[in-house]
Amino acid sequence: MDRGRASFMEAVPAMTLLAVLYAGGEWLARRRFPGTFYPVLLAAVFLLPAPAAALVALPGALLSPVEQRPAWLRRVWRAAELVVAVWAAGRVFRALGGRDAVEASDVPYALGPAAGAVLAFCAVLTVLDGGILVVAERVPVRRAWRGLLLRSLAPVGVHGLAGLMMAVLWRSPYGPLAALLVLLPMGVSWWAFAQYHRERGAHQATIRALVQAVDIKDEYTRGHSERVGQASMMIARELGMDDERVEVLRFAGILHDVGKLGVPTRLLRKDGPLTPEERRVIELHPEYGHEMVRGISFLGEARAAVLHHHERLDGSGYPYGLVGSQIPESARVVAVADAFDAMTSTRSYSRARPVAVALEELERCAGRQFDPVMVAALVRVVRRSGWDPVVTADGVPSRRVPSPAPVSGRAGAHR
After folding, report:
1. What keywords appear on the UniProt entry (predicted)?
2. More confident residue, 327 or 270
3. Model-level pTM?
């Protein structure tokens, strides 16, 4: 016990300096772009006894900016899970003989224990992050932990390598000042990453401007694009798609009607039935939309969804009359989301249907008009979680619609 206390007291100066560095880096990282500052934290794992290393995380976690409320509770939770993760990583690193390798500046021998520590660190964060998703966000257990560990290993591994270099230099004759030089290349890489996020933010601002232009032009469908994006995202998550693809499909739903900017406003706002010629003009909007977004490279398969979201499985859709699997998967997702929101929203020519009736209609049309897999996914997630659209057709925030109870009757064809 006395040896452990003495070891802890000897580590206090290094622990204090690392805690200040971690707090400053974490504050800067979260101010500039989404991310976290792990190199200093992992350097503490490789340099200090596990209890001292765990305390390094406290100031940075408690003082870092938090956007969502309640901020204090989120800070406390973040601090608690980091303390546990760092303590576990420190214990693993010491058990594998990593401390002796760092003291001897034997980098090759220290790589194995460092990898074990990084794995322990990521595993603890994965268990705790997934658990809070289940408890607080009510995410289904089978989805809460999916992909969390694999997504964290690569970036944390890079940070761990930088932390190991810091620890080795810290124990070298050059001392802590040389160790701080390791942060320079990390700062450059963060700057490049921040540039990437700014560019992505500019693209998203462009998307928002396009959607707002569509909403202004077609006032009866105001908010429709955002709701279709939300429903597309729900379907994609229910199907188990990775986060990057879920985001792309959200963009696809948001942008699916952007081609309406090329359609005369008088046709979009016409109250009476459309003539065959007018309908042909409106049916050009998927091609107009595809022309508008095809130069936005990060949209990926969302561009195909914009072009093909009015295709039908039986080949009766437009613009090309594609059949079955010829229709891109992204377009089949957006088609279901689009039809669902159209049925549950009040338009100039129709009143909103109850959510349960809309789901029944989608199931009735599955296999002929809609992909049964996409329909089943939307039905499951809506019946489990309810339909909580971001905005209503008149732009006023809506209240949550509870999960629908089964209905006995079948709805008529909606188109």
Report:
1. Hydrolase, Membrane, Transmembrane, Transmembrane helix
2. 327
3. 0.56
